[in-house]
Amino acid sequence: MVKAIEWRDGKVIMLDQSILPVEVKFIECADYHIIAEGIKKLWIRGAPAIGIAAAMGIALGAQDITAKNYRDFIKGIEAIFDVMLSTRPTAVNIKWAVERIKRLLKERRGESVTRLKELLIEEAKKIHEEDIEVNKAIGRWGAQFIKDGDTVLTHCNAGSLATGGYGTATAPIFVAMEQGKKIQVIADETRPVLQGARLTAWELMQAGVPVTLITDNSAGALMKKGEIDLAIVGTDRTVRNGDVANKIGTYSVAVLCKEHKIPFYVAAPLSSIDFSIPTGDMIPIEERGAEEVTHIFGRCRIAPDNVKVRNMAFDVTPAKYVTAIITEKGAFRPKDLKKLSKKSANIEGYRL
Ligand code: MRU
């Protein structure tokens, strides 16, 4: 599987996803500001992957804090938290990573600054490793929904590149294939920056998964012809009532699925579930620059100069369109998702 990010010899190595698959280039980051810039510019993207990148950025930045005591160290680290939190607003994974690191620092407040710096590196690596295991568990729970011979539609990229490895939406596909089921995937190209065409199609081909690329506006026609059996997508933030924020266009796919009686699944690690928000209208939606819509690869203009543009990066799919949310703890009907909220977080192996 392709690795989107790695901690190597005190530096962070990121695969530049903004130029894939035309160029395969790795960026070496020795400064946390470069990681923050990479998150903003989509060198690294996908909710779990940017959570991991933020944790690694914090660990990297911490090494340069010159503080001698805990209080001054915390002041320094809080400034790094703010930089990471200001990069992209929709995916909750950055906030999730920051909260986790804050808890660790609180628990270990008696340690020396040198030890705290080491602990932050260990924690960032742990967040990365755990994410891969979480994805595999999502795969085991999700594979039950895929039958031999099924065609699975996916939108955007919720694969290895968007995570620590293995992917969230792709994990049930990999597990179903390991179980011997013959499956094919249809990937929406995902305008405007084409994560489906550039990333999902590329990584599934490398993993040996049969994949067909379609334009976003083809999905409805294929559903009407009976050529899609189910849809699985990822999420940037799923909230308490089961509303799901994901890449722009996900809502349209979900509505089309309902019309054609096709199950619509969301693969959601707990790190992407925000129980502090009751409904989807409260999720902050990132709006990005016009040039993503007016140009391809920032170079080739495909719209009139100075045309007015609206570029919402994400949309919210209401819970009523979601068949199930597949987490590492099991698959949940949206209305049952709150069973996973803090008080009962030790719930294990929930089956629909
Ligand atoms: O703008 P992006 O490429 O970061 O958007 C990514 C998505 O919408 C993914 O579906 C989501 O982050 C889930 S990744 C497992």
Q: How would you sum up this structure, described in words?
A:
- The strands form 4 sheets. Strands 6-5-4-7-10-15-16 form a 7-stranded mixed β-sheet. Strands 11-8-9-14 form a 4-stranded mixed β-sheet, covered by helices on one side.
- Helix 2 (47-62) runs parallel beside helix 4 and helix 3 (70-85) runs antiparallel to helix 4 (93-107).
- A hairpin with a 2-residue loop joins strand 15 and strand 16.
- The longest helix is centred in the middle third of the chain and has 30 residues, at 113-142.
- It is of the alpha/beta class and 352 residues long.
- It is globular.
- It contains 10 helices and 16 strands.
- The chain has helices at residues 32-40, 47-62, 70-85, 93-107, 113-142, 171-178, 195-206, 219-224, 250-259, 291-294; strands spanning 5-8, 11-15, 26-29, 151-154, 184-188, 211-214, 230-233, 237-239, 244-247, 264-267, 273-274, 295-296, 300-301, 314-317, 324-327, 330-332.
- The protein has 2 domains: 5-135, translation initiation factor eif-2b, domain 1 (Four Helix Bundle (Hemerythrin (Met), subunit A)), CATH 1.20.120.420; 141-344, Translation initiation factor eif-2b, domain 2 (Rossmann fold, 3-Layer(aba) Sandwich).
- The model has no long low-confidence stretch (mean pLDDT 96).
- The chain binds 5-S-methyl-1-O-phosphono-5-thio-D-ribulose (MRU).
- 5-S-methyl-1-O-phosphono-5-thio-D-ribulose binds at residues 45-48, 91, 156, 158, 162-163, 168, 195, 234-236, 246-247, 313.
